Amino acid sequence: MPGIAIGGRYAAPQVAGGVLIAACLVLFPLVASSYQLSTLIVSMVFLLPAIGLNLILGYTGMLSLAQMGFFGVGGYTSALIAMHFGTPFWLNFVAACLVPALLAAPLAIPALRLRHTSFVMCTIAFVFIIESVSKNWVGLTRGDMGLSSVPRPRIGLWSDGFIVHTTVQYYYLGLLLCALAVAALVAIVRSPAGRYMIAIREDEILAASVGGRTWHYRLAAFVLSAAFAGAGGSYYVHYVTVISPTVFDPSYTNTVLVVVLGGGVGTIAGPILGSVVFVALSEALRIAPELRMVVYGLVLTTSVFAFPKGLIAPLTSALRGAVQPKARGPHDR
Asked: What is the dihedral of CA 307, 313, 319, 320, to 10 degrees?
């Protein structure tokens, strides 16, 4: 994946683009309607698992389709803890990250011994298993009826605190969670472990030849990607206040893939832009259900041909050209 970088001469335009996007998102509620904010909330719901997929695919080179399985596990975990123990949101959120991560570790032991198509099939099988468990463990998940009346997020240390209930409040909560997730991704990929993950993506045999244990780094990427997905599940379930086995629908997995690949895999800002454009566009097109999927499909097809490296690529190039001075010719003074 040439041209993907997290430092050096590519860092300035990426940071500038990230700051610009962040500023627009912070100020957006001042001019947006409740419906427009709701579409961006849905975008942020999908951005969290997309960040995890971006880590494992963009920086380690492994395509995992288990993200929405971990997303559902995180959602069920957060909902069950909140419903049975009345815990504050921060504790539900942490549990929703930890449980999928702990579940991903034993799954990774056989899965990471596979390569390419076999690995992808293994991750798909995991989603089918988790969906079956959610449907048949009626005593815990209520089966196909799902869990309803999930408590709204309560921001506080334990027994008291502020209840999030308006659209604007949910928007800013999602913005905070996504900012923390993006910061965590930046910290990971800029660390020595992150640079080694990139080396594995480029050439695993060469990375192993320098003495590193590539399996351990791939395991870490897989577990961390599950934690990001669980975070999205927690935010989702406390926003819609219901969860059922439909959360494992393959269309959600497709959406996460579109966000990462369409935005720009292996970049920090790519999935952010992809979630805003593709998920928000899909939600906005609900006003025209007859044309929704036709228009959405045309947009996807056009973006694939026009921007094969993702929507972020031309923006990064433009910012890089604006930041870096033009080379002076022999006749320039």
From this structure: -120
Asked if 248 and 72 count as a contact pair (C-beta separation under 8 A), the reply is yes
Contact call for residues 109 and 174 (beta carbons, < 8 A)? no
Which amino acid would we find at residue 307? F
Q: Name the burial class of residue 193, with classes exposed (0-12), middle (13-18) and buried (19+) by CB atoms within 10 angstroms of its CB.
A: middle
Strand partners, 22: none
**pLDDT tens, 292-309?**
888 888 888 888 888 888
Whole-angstrom distance, CA of residue 295 vs CA of residue 316: 26
Neighbours of 272 (CB within 10 A): 27
Which token pair is 45? 């719901």
Query: 């997020």: which residue's tokens?
Result: 153
**pTM confidence score:** 0.89
User: Token match 């869990």: residue?
Assistant: 147
Burial bucket for residue 72 (CB in 10 Å: 0-12, 13-18, 19+): buried
Please name which of 180, 187, 179 lies closest in space to residue 7, comparing C-alpha atoms: 187
What pLDDT was estimated at residue 7?
A: 46
C-alpha–C-alpha distance, residues 217 and 194, integer Å: 9
Residues 6+ apart with CB under 8 A from 154: 88, 89, 161, 162, 163, 164
Return d(Cα 52, Cα 321) in angstroms, integer. Answer: 30
Identify the helix (H) or strand (E) that includes residue 163: strand 162-163
Lowest model confidence (mean pLDDT) among 28-37, 64-73, 108-117, 287-296: 287-296
d(CA 243, CA 251): 16
Measured distance CA(253)–CA(66) in Å, rounded: 8
CB 311 within 8 A of CB 303: yes
Residue 142 phi/psi, 5° resolution?
A: 65, 20
